[in-house]
């Protein structure tokens, strides 16, 4: 839906940013000046005790000096309410008394239907609540009491009971003139295969309402009272309201509590969340009967920079933790990670709260381990590494996992931590070296392969390495290839922004694109976020989120301005040809750098046949890459420090090959 000119400006004029933000924060009365609209508070986007979150009501912008979050009232509503741009506009327009422009009839009809479904769900909540207090709910009440839930807790969580009948809820809703199609669409009933009346989805189950972040009932989770039931827990089917992979149990209250500097706890089920919350851990959520999805992971990170995954101490809980590692590794960012608190074997948070009290759970949470430790545990626990082959297999597995991390800095730190753990396992109490992550298993002391028997000096932990004079001009010592990579990334982003219709074809390539430049990384994220789902709004969303200068700066780059396909906006074929040429060159460049970096690390130990083969391949690849890059040098104009294989570099590289005993013959 497009908005008429001036609508957003008027909306921002009518909206008080202080009032919008004030719903989520507690203002610091000492630093704030209400009369001037100059307000300060602890940031709602990250955990802190000081008031570093600044709101300038006159300018209509906020900024956090801690986490650098910034934006206007619309951006704030989007981030805190987990809604899209147009939904944020609707929320603020309603508060400001502005009538939204007329929507497309089909879109309006769809929104009206969602509202109707939400009303039907609320009627079902009340029906189940009443049934819990009837004679038919006696066993359910006894079970809940045995789990330590008081009447007040049952009311807070609106827990109910679905009677053991085929059409109890169906007849109740039809008696209130609820249309049959709405009951079916809400997932509350299923059609009969025998041609009879539809029957209730939930029967003889304790019912837990599932609400979205705004508090609307969107689904149910039901626990079977019959111990012989095939499904102990049953969730509503996916509907127009409910997407299981994009929902979290207790999302809204947990998000509010997480904004008060309390750790976000992720448990496995409804009863764990309820027990934790009743025990004083207000910021807790649970996925809905499945492994955590990518969407749920991003939702968790919006609430907390480092959620604590509190899993059951059984095999299923451990397996869930291990699966989550593989999901999270490629998505790690600086300051965004996970910690894992594994409950004692055979227990879950609910068990511990009831048997040992909140203090016991807190003790486990305090011992939550970082993800790198759990990754190491997964790859080593229960295995014996008594041969070079087994050690090499471990090295390979760890390298493959660490390569999934896109952020170079995080990848480096993971490598360093893994290296330390590896030395503890294989070298016992020997001193540990401080060089970068190396998984060759090479000895730090002596060995052939070093000219004249020279050995690299032994350095203690924390020592700073400096390049030898003979290697400073070597290809392995680095060059300005980073500038060429940034140039290619800029061309790629300019191409897809100009012709967003091709984004879906190159989505995987864009996801793998590192973008070490933060401005380019921000553009890449916007392209991936809107380029597929809303390509017609891509430029508008970029300008709104990053400011108008983001695109101006990109297209003003000299090497971007001369790209032919940019002169034909919307020409998908021209854009495809450009991207098909740029992505392989960029990935070859990145891959070559990674291979050479690994080879350089491995040179700290003994050279072996595999290493010399890799260096030979790297040298050949470098020669091919350099020839290709030199052809593009004038186009990209990265300067005199580019990756040019001049005589000095060839000599240095040759000396390096000689040093490790490699001969081209």
TrEMBL record:
The gene is dnaG. Contains an N-terminal zinc-binding domain, a central core domain that contains the primase activity, and a C-terminal DnaB-binding domain. Its cofactor is Zn(2+). RNA polymerase that catalyzes the synthesis of short RNA molecules used as primers for DNA polymerase during DNA replication. CDD domains: TOPRIM_DnaG_primases (cd03364). One of its GO terms (cellular component) is primosome complex. Its EC number is 2.7.7.101. This is DNA primase. GO terms for molecular function: DNA binding; DNA-directed RNA polymerase activity; zinc ion binding. SMART domains: TOPRIM, ZnF_CHCC. It comes from Phaeobacter gallaeciensis. Keywords: DNA replication, DNA-binding, DNA-directed RNA polymerase, Magnesium, Metal-binding, Nucleotidyltransferase, Primosome, Transcription, Transferase, Zinc, Zinc-finger. InterPro entries: DNA_primase_core_N_sf (IPR037068), DNA_primase_DnaG (IPR006295), DNA_primase_Znf_CHC2 (IPR036977), DnaG_bac (IPR030846), DNAG_N (IPR013264), DnaG_primase (IPR050219), TOPRIM_DnaG_bac (IPR034151), TOPRIM_dom (IPR006171). Binds 1 zinc ion per monomer. GO terms for biological process: DNA replication, synthesis of primer. A zinc finger (CHC2-type) spans 43-67.
